[in-house]
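Methods — Computational structure assignment.
A single polypeptide chain was analysed. Its primary sequence is given first, followed by the predicted tertiary structure written as structure tokens.
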Amino acid sequence: MQETRSGSYKWLALLTVSVGTFMGTLDFSIVNISLPRLTEVFDTELSVVLWVTVAYLLVSVGLVLTLGKVGDLFGRKRVYVLGMALFTVGLVLCWASQGIVQLILSRIVQAVGAAMTVALSNAIVTAAFPDQERGKALGILGAVVSAGLLSGPMLGGFLLDTLDWRSIFYVRIPVGIIGVVMGWALLKEQRGVSTAVKFDWGGAGTLFGGLSCLLLFFNLGGTRGFMSTPALTLGVSAVVLLASFVVIERRASQPILSLNLFQNRIFASGIVSMGVMFIAISATTLLMPFYLIAGLGRSQAQAGLLLPVIPLTSLVIGPLSGWLSDKIGSRILCTIGTALISLALYLLSRLGTESTTLEIVLRFVVMGLGLGMFSSPNNSSIMGSVPRESLSTGSAMIATMRQVGMASGFAIAGAIFTARQFVHTTRLAGDLAPDMVDTLSLVSAFQDSLLFAAILCSVAIITSWVRGRRPPGAFELTH
């Protein structure tokens, strides 16, 4: 691989990749807020409109690891730029959609492009920066992720109020074009391997099918029950397909995912910690709006001002913790970060019907501190533990675990919340007014769900600590 670490190039590469990263994270949050409007525009059920998001999630998660391998084989710049172009074409198609089916198909085009860029963003930045600056660079990229998630609901709400639903797509087309031009003009080609290409079609197919069935299992299980026949069928299918994927990968000469990576304790513990953490914090993302609006009686505008406290805090802390991880390694920072997240979840579970804004904000700050301290060092340790010819695979694995963790976390948190709310409603019925029963049962179910999330997140404290210290010369070994 050619040298790509000149002083100016590394920052140009980071700036270029930041555009694509911001577009991808913004897209997920900006489209979700438009779903109620789309049910009115297309005069259809919410269950149908949800496929605007579900189809995007299935395709992007199912393809990201495969496309990471494609980037290693055929060149990261080539795949990244093509991904930005496809994503932008998808925006145009979404803007021009005349029906809900056309919009869903257009979102699939977008998802393929998003998977290509997300799979390679961390790899391109890692290759551009020297090892001693990797944490700082990935910390900045992590801050861009937070900025995208933060601005999506606010920008989407503004556009929906002032323009129309199509505006959430067409206003981003110029930025997509700029991203394509920057990628083509500024990025240098990176290729992980020079051997003859032998693509792992069996691995790609079983991986896509297995992850799709897994996400649908969590999605359907959270609404119909995990023991329902459709959910069980999807769960069994996921297990069979993912087990087949493991068998195929063990035999493939150029596997989509080299299972030898999991023999590296730093890589394995980083991936597991990340997955557990995202499952846990998804309870906050899903349930906090219900608690703030239905439990405390806050307006949507008030809730909208409180919720960004978490990503804003993470936005500030992420680059700092990434820089610090370059100096002292990731073990201590990741362990403290997961401990703070677990503490924040526990403190959130203690909120009640009389909690003040200050109490909520302080807990959000603790959560943001934990996320900022964990994410950048953890991503840096994962990327530093993989061979340079497999950087795209490491990058894609981060993206996959993030999406799978969030999707499964939403379903699990939703299922626990629904079950506990029913229990509390039954317990309180007859003694109180119906409105009070609804409020108290909702808050109690919220408390139970967040307590479960705090206990689950404590597992990530252990897995973060057992990654061990970075051995001397570890950076050199990754070349």
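Note: The two ends are 10 Å apart (CA to CA).
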